[in-house]
Amino acid sequence: MPSITNSPLHSVRIGLTGGIGSGKSTVAQMLLKRGAALVDADAIARLVTAPGGTALEAIGQQFGPHFLTAEGALDRDQMRALVFNDPHAKRALEAIIHPLVAQETERQANTALAAGRHTVVFDVPLLVESDRWRQRLDRVLVVDCLVETQIQRVMARSGLSQEAIQRIIDAQAKRPERLAAADWVIFNEKLGLDELHAEVMNLPL
After folding, report:
1. Under 8 Å CB-to-CB from 63, ≥6 apart: which residues?
2. What is the dihedral of CA 24, 30, 33, 37, to 10 degrees?
């Protein structure tokens, strides 16, 4: 099975990212319907920290068994509280999870390319924050909107408080950082679904 770096010249690897509430997941589904293969890095990160996941033994050794639930999964609430306040813990967790996610994303991308897909979209919420991704991609697509819109959307769908959402936004890359990393930008501000779909269809894939 060919590796990503040795895949056919006509294939394209796109990194898709955007802040919470930007509409990134909606764009991902539209790209999937357009014929792209979708590799969801966040879903893979949840998989490796679910019961039986490949990250759990190392997490238990690094942080202690009390960071695992009775079902044998990562206690995400407890870990989130820790890493928000402890940069060293955040880096230690990333050192465990990121290589495992990279291995699985590569496996899924190789499978898609071997099956004849020409476009692989890597849905990566923290693409800009990580130094592991850019060299693996041909293009970066950023779904962007105003911070105020992010807060309104997430409050409407999740019930989180404005303060909690702002803390999540503050932990992510700032809009100028994401935009600086972008090859393509979809400004998803006051767009209906049909208008957003048109923007996705106009991408030069």
Report:
1. 79, 82, 89, 92, 93
2. -30
pLDDT in tens, 150-177: 999 999 999 889 999 998 899 899 999 9
d(CA 23, CA 105): 22
Q: Around Cβ 42, how many Cβ atoms within 10 Å?
A: 14
Q: How many residues does the chain have?
A: 205
The CA-based dihedral angle spanning residues 143, 146, 149, 154, taken in that order and rounded to the nearest 10 degrees: 60
pLDDT of 21 reads: 96
One-letter identity of residue 138: D
* DSSP-assigned letters across all residues of 16-57: EE--TTSSHHHHHHHHHHTT-EEEEHHHHHHHHTSTT-TTHH
For the chain, the farthest-separated pair of C-alpha atoms sits apart, in whole angstroms, at: 49
**From CA 173, how far away is CA 130, in angstroms rounded?**
10
